[in-house]
Design goal:
Helix content: 25-40%
Distance between the termini: 11 Å
Number of domains: 2
Radius of gyration: 19 Å
Largest sheet: 8 strands, mixed
Low-confidence stretches: none
CATH class of the largest domain: Alpha Beta
Shape: globular
Bound molecules: (3R)-3-hydroxy-3-methyl-5-(phosphonooxy)pentanoic acid
Mean pLDDT: 95
Strand content: 25-35%
Order of helices and strands: EEEEEEHEHHEEEHHHHHEEHEE
Length: about 325
């Protein structure tokens, strides 16, 4: 039977960059994120005995190479768990440009995990789904549970998974994604993670992580938006410093990215409470509270070269929708 899963992308407030175990995608630090209501992947999976090989469609394109291989590897893990050899047809659609720092691998592998597990007849716990999604793409483990999420790094396959800290309606935080670039990135995050340790700043990043995670969890608990925003912004700059100083260096920003950052900092100095974060791509995630989002959107629309703004509230995690 065909099952369709819907999974949100997520934005990391505290980010995962660098792995303890490459193959199992176990990170060197824990991370904290929010699932996003406006950017998601819909994935239908059907196991079909008449198929000689897996068929993988992503955004209406029949995949034949790297992307297909990654999906097939993930299907193999789920087939092994279910004890069946049957090939599958997978049809996945994103409602946003993939590979540009809006976490399409997170929503994609979370939806694939839930869709394939359901289609094969496995009824798995949220923890198990999160562990499995992590094997496809690390950040995908955070798109399984609802709302505001913590991924505890763990140190083995069975201990590295994500769980909900607070449900979506806990706090009306908005993530306004400013799309400045639509092209896929040249260096994937999977490749980027392997370079992290070559940055001279990586050790100090990791040594400060424990206290940063404690602080942001306190800001979430106290609903202290200024504290939350400052930590989010410092963390994004910290991760991009590591990226830009790795060997070879990684620059995910475009000129418009920096232009937007400077505007955000200027508007904040004028009293508007907004902060930014950026993942492995040029697009900027503007973080504000629901009460100021209309005003912030107006300001953002006044910027040159902005292609699109995608408004997000906190969202539930992955669900079967058929
Ligand atoms: O899960 P991956 O391999 O796509 O890595 C995600 C990396 C960042 O988006 C830059 C940070 C994060 O924690 O989401």
């Amino acid at each position: 039977m065909k099952y369709t899963a819907k999974a949100p992308a997520n934005i990391a407030f505290i980010k995962y960059w660098g792995k303890r175990d490459e193959k199992l995608r176990i990170p060197l630090n824990g991370s904290i994120s929010m699932n996003l209501s406006g950017v998601f992947t819909l994935t239908s999976v059907e196991f079909d005995k008449s198929l000689k090989e897996d068929q993988v469609w992503i955004d209406k394109k029949l995949e034949r190479k790297k992307e297909k291989e990654r999906v097939v590897n993930h299907l193999d893990i789920i087939r092994k768990l279910a004890g069946i050899p049957t090939k599958a047809s997978v049809n996945s659609e994103n409602n946003f440009p993939k590979g540009t720092g809006i976490a399409s691998s997170a929503s994609g592998f979370a939806a694939l995990t839930l869709g394939a597990a359901s289609a094969v007849g496995l009824s798995l716990s949220e923890k198990k789904l999160s562990l499995l999604a992590r094997l496809g793409s690390g950040s995908a483990c955070r798109s399984i549970p609802d709302g505001f999420v913590e991924w505890k790094a763990g140190n083995s396959d069975g201990t590295s998974y994500a769980r909900t800290l607070y449900p979506p309606d806990y706090w009306d935080i908005r993530d306004l994604i400013i799309v400045v670039g639509q092209k896929g990135k040249k260096v994937s995050s999977t490749e980027g993670h392997t370079l992290a340790e070559s940055s001279p700043f990586f050790k100090s990043r990791i040594s400060g992580m424990g206290s940063k995670i404690r602080e942001i969890k306190k800001a979430l608990k106290d609903k202290d938006f200024s504290k939350l925003g400052h930590i989010i912004e410092e963390e994004a700059i910290n991760m991009h410093t590591v990226m830009m100083t790795s060997n070879p260096p990684l620059f995910y920003w475009l000129p418009e990215t920096l232009e937007t950052i400077l505007s955000i900092q200027y508007w904040r100095s004028q009293g508007l409470e907004i902060y930014f974060t950026i993942d492995a791509g040029p697009n900027i995630h503007v973080i504000c509270e629901g009460k100021s989002s209309e005003k912030v959107i107006k300001k953002l629309r006044s910027l040159r070269k902005i292609r699109n703004i995608i408004e997000n509230k906190p969202s539930i995690g992955a669900r079967i929708i058929n």
